[in-house]
Hints:
The complex is a heterodimer of chains A (about 140) and B (about 500). Chain A is of the alpha/beta class and about 140 residues long.
Amino acid sequence: MALLKQLFLGVALLSFSYAETPEQELIVKVLKLISVKNVSVSVFEHQPSISLQGSTFTHLTEQCAHADIVYGSNFEALSPLCQELPRFSTDYEVFQKDERVIGAFYWRKGRPQLRFNQERCERFEIFLPAELVRYVQ
Amino acid sequence: MFSKITFARLFIFVTVLLFATTLLLYLFFSQTKVDIVTSFERAGVEEVEEIASNISQYIVHSSRSINLHQSLSEDRTLKDALEYFLSTFQTQKIKNIFIVDKPNESSILFRVLLDGTKEKSDKFQFEELFEPENTVWAEVIHSREPKVIYQDDNMDALWATFLYPIIQEDGHVAILALDFSKAHYQKVVSSLLGLEVFLRTMVPFLFFIFTIMVIVIQSDKKREAEKQEAQKALEELNLTLEDRIADEVEKNRQKDQQLIQQSRLASMGEMISMIAHQWRQPLSAISSTVQGLHLKLTLKKYDEVLFLEKLMDVNRYAQYLSQTIDDFRHFFKTSKEKNQVTLEEVIEKVLSLIHVTLENKKITLIMDFQSNEFLMTYSNELMQVLLNLIKNAEDALVENQIDHPWIKIATSKNETHVMLSISDNAGGIPPEILTRIFEPYFSTKTQKDGTGLGLYMSQKIIEEHCSGSLCASNSSSGAVFTIQLPRAVV
């Protein structure tokens, strides 16, 4: 009985820890779809408004050196090593102004928005599958 | 005052009535709710549509070109003025108000032209691409008809978007989007929905109650019927119980009578044998006396004194024979009432009947009388029992061919009872049958000699007629039958 209780608690905690918000789910899906030279991207998080910690995304890295892309905001504060990496933002203004931001996920009037910049993606050899091409501006 | 069944029926009726009423109310209410909500919706939408229509006219008239996008691109002041104009319509009821168009026919993204939002973080930039939440936006462009988008298609959603087509002079269509609140009538809608849920829940609930009631009442009816049937059977049993008891008692009495009769008939044969033994000696005495007298007469040697003596002897023998007959007749009479006797008197009477038989079989009688106490009992019945026990002892002694056979008859007493025991030296009763000897029709004798009723009847007489007890045991020499009788109350 005690074992069953522990098992139940374990499953409950595991389910809880892997519970994704709809926003997390969407960003994870996007990051899983994009690739660099046919290889899924590894992501370094930097002050994102929607963190991917605790999500089902498994390619999060702790160090910029191992990352293909930086996800988050306030990119000016990034270390020099990370400055050169392509970026995925959660702010439309940053997406507009920062030439390294290849795409953004943000909210407008309660509606989720996803945008990509084709030119920047090509510059960083980032491949956008057909599902994401429709979001290119 | 209602009976249980009537109350149950009334309850069922009320439940059915409630069920039907609730069902009708639910059906009526569902339709009414839709009408009420639709009416509210229509009123809300009409209000927003009127605002949208006015804005649209103003925007179209303000545009200095045949195309709004072109006008706004050329004149940023116009853009700011129109956005300010739009912002004046933002109230608690209208949250967002903005205008979009399609940059080209194939594009799935819309292009924002104007946004009345003041908050900078949520404000669209000019020409910012915008992805609508569904295809209704494209339908508005195509159909040029206003449409409403409800959040999640829920009637109780707090926000809705009204899309109003702005048809420009060049035929290009832009969309005026207004996110408007439904909160002002949402409370009413929520209450209606709550009431609908309540009624929807009540219908199956009342149906469930109705079903349960029907099951309970059916089961109750069945139980009631069973109860009444049992009660009826009990009443019938009560009515006939006395008769049945009387019948059974009568049957038992008749059975007892039959057994007694059987037992008596069985003893009768033995009695006849005893009478024969009793009569043999006096009859031979009479015969020899008469023969002696006859010889004296023949030899003419008789004298009067001797004759008188001998005649008196004959008379005494005849008296003895007569007495014997009386004794036996008396023995077969059933005692109607208890009489006061001592055990010793009863024993003497029994021995007067049987002593000759015992003497002939050379059975020694040993007497040990320690009682001499009067008791109230049915003496003839007691005599029958004693005779039966002594005959049993005699039969056992003869059958086992015992040397120096004896039967001991002893009496004793204590404070409450007098005791009589009849013992012998015939070897005793086999232990395996000791508990069965008082059962009816149980006998160790051959069919010819025993009926199996003697000891059964004896125990019945002692226990039921004389209020005493009769038990059997074995001593070292043979069987011991002990009768215990209550002493007479002085």
